[in-house]
Amino acid sequence: MDGVVEVLHAYFPSHAYPSHTHDAWTVLIVDEGAVRYDLDHREHGLAQAQVSLLPPNVPHDGRSVHPEGFRKRVLHLDPDRLGGAGLVGAAVDTPEYVDPVLRQRIHQLHGVLVDGREDLEAQSRLTLIEERLQQHLRQQVIDPPDRRDAAVATKLREVLDGHLLQGITLDEASKLVHAHPVHLVRAFSREYGMPPHRYLTGRRVELARRYLLEGRPAAEVAVLAGFYDQSHLNRHFRKMLGVSPSRFARP
Question: In the chain, at which residue ranges do the beta strands (DSSP E only) sit?
Fold first, then answer.
């Protein structure tokens, strides 16, 4: 995925990291236990309510606070995604944030990346995460103003409708609509009450319903409606309608 260099989910019952560096931004959350680490010769701690952002090419280590170890999830982001070297000093000074909104967004992105088939959703979630991290680095974390932009939202809806089967990336949509990716996601969500990826999935499920009612088999419907395969269709169809495609089509 563009912008994400590596994803790591790990449980360490006893391992302690020696001092090392990464050439990417490291976004870390802890799901069990707590972590203590030195960053640029200063000690820090990370608990489950926090998010840690470690800058590229700055030495750090890591070890568990408790004897039972820790479980963590990590995103390594391309070094240019957060504005480059100019914000490294801010991350060294304050690498932990207590931000429930940010932590929830990171949790959701990990879930999408595990599935690996929801490109537009992953890109949308990553864009909002990067915006929030940049705000922290600049010490300007604010809730975005509730400004509507119906023209941008309508144009994006037209673009999504035109790419219903083949899909589209957030960057591609941004170029077609001539708007920043963050603005695209926010404007669409405010106008239609759902993010772009959910709208696209809903349209595909609606198309799948029509094909199923025509008597087509679910495996064929999945391809015709723009899903990767039948399991991909089944998951979204059941989530939206509460029944499987085969049960829906049963007379």
Answer: 4-12, 17-20, 25-32, 35-39, 42-46, 51-54, 60-64, 70-77, 96-97
Distance CA 190, CA 171 (A): 20
Q: State residue 144's pLDDT score.
A: 61
Beta bridge partners, 32, equal: 71
> What percent helix, strand, coil does the chain show, rounded to 5?
50, 20, 30
Contact between 130 and 80 (Cβ < 8 Å): no
Reported as a single tens digit per residue, the pLDDT across 28-78 is 999 999 999 999 989 999 999 999 999 999 999 999 999 999 999 999 999
| Cα–Cα distance, 238 to 59 (Å, whole number) | 47
- The neighbouring-strand residues paired with 51 are 97
Residue 173's identity, in one-letter code, is A
Which H or E run contains 230? helix 230-241
How many whole angstroms separate alpha carbon 196 and alpha carbon 167? 11
Amino acid at 159: V
Residues 20, 27, 142, 131, CA torsion sign: positive
For 228, the 3-state DSSP assignment is coil
Checking 94-97 for CB contacts under 8 A at 24+ apart, the result is: 94/136, 95/39, 95/44, 95/52, 95/53, 95/54, 95/55, 96/44, 96/45, 96/46, 96/50, 96/51, 96/52, 96/53, 97/50, 97/51, 97/52, 97/53, 97/136
- What is the DSSP secondary-structure string of 40-77? TTEEEEE-TT-EEEEPTT--EEEEESSTT-EEEEEEEE
